[in-house]
Design brief:
- There is one protein chain.
- The chain is mainly alpha-helical.
- The two termini are 16 Å apart.
- The chain has one domain.
- The protein has 13 helices and no strands.
- Keywords: Membrane, Transmembrane, Transmembrane helix.
- It comes from Gymnodinialimonas phycosphaerae.
- This is DMT family transporter.
């Protein structure tokens, strides 16, 4: 899970290098192309390892398609947000997703409820609000980041719900194929000239995203969604680091306070879990 949480921000950093304006050091490419290429290239990378595992009946399960649509919405929204907003801010707003996944897991999957963890979840949500700034300075980019979090939270819960449907590689392949099909028309229409730099960033974005999501699926097949949720917060460390090193961007004071709250709530949730359940030690 920790490796996955490093790979996913790395893929999104490459995505930002593609979608950001030329004045910001990017390539100015449409986010929908980056999202489509990520799904399509990821599917090609995984295909040789899963063709014997994927059966036609997997795609007849409506839950597979709904889960795929959740991921399509999440990736397209976060790449749209990254085209105009700093990486650290986008990921902090995106962290409404793990909060939502915990609440939905308790409600729909009947996972254990903890009053202390609920309080920490609320603390994390306050942190998200400080970054997003709804109603006072909220930008369209941050709105897309928050929307990406909603999609992603639903995706995480569905990953746990469908943990026994198929093997991890088959589940990954199904979501990549669905994403490539859904975004094929607008993605191909927005295809830019394939220069060496664009091809390198596109391949990096697709590979990091594919590997990160494969490890994510494996993690959710081995443990409860509520147990995995706190580890998701480590993405903030990598997002802030990549933003500072590659783009020279640091969060403002209010956003930094929000990011800190989100990280504290996530790590404290993990500690509460370990104290309450010594087996997780």
């Amino acid at each position: 899970m920790l490796v996955a949480m490093a790979l996913i921000p790395a893929g999104d950093t490459a995505g930002k290098l593609l979608t950001a304006d030329l004045s910001d050091g990017g390539q100015g490419i449409a986010p929908v192309f980056v999202a489509w290429s990520r799904f399509a290239l990821g599917a090609l990378m995984v295909a040789p390892f899963v063709l014997r595992l994927v059966l036609a009946r997997l795609f007849t399960d409506w839950r597979i398609w709904l889960r795929g649509f959740m991921l399509v919405g999440g990736i397209t929204s976060i790449l749209t947000a990254l085209s105009t907003e700093p990486i650290a801010n986008v990921f902090a707003a995106f962290f409404g997703g793990p909060i939502l996944s915990w609440l939905l897991s308790v409600w729909l999957l009947r996972e254990p409820f903890s009053a202390s963890r609920f309080g920490l979840i609320c603390l994390g949500f306050i942190g998200v609000l400080l970054v997003v700034k709804p109603g006072f300075g909220m930008t369209p980019g941050m709105a897309f980041a928050a929307l990406a979090g909603i999609f992603y939270g639903c995706y995480l819960v569905m990953s746990r719900w469908m943990a026994d449907v198929a093997r991890p590689r088959a589940m990954l392949f199904s979501q990549l194929v669905i994403g490539a099909l859904v975004l094929a028309v607008p993605g191909v229409a927005a295809m830019p000239p394939l220069t060496p730099s664009i091809m390198a960033f596109t391949l990096t974005s697709a590979a990091c995203s594919m590997l990160g999501n494969l490890l994510l699926i494996i993690a959710y097949q081995r443990a409860e969604a509520s147990r995995m949720a706190p580890f998701v917060y480590t993405q903030l460390v990598w997002a802030t680091l990549f933003g500072a090193l590659i783009f020279g961007s640091l969060p403002d004071t209010l956003a930094l306070a929000g990011i800190t709250l989100v990280m504290v709530s996530g790590l404290a949730s993990l500690l509460v879990r370990r104290v309450a359940d010594p087996v997780t030690r």
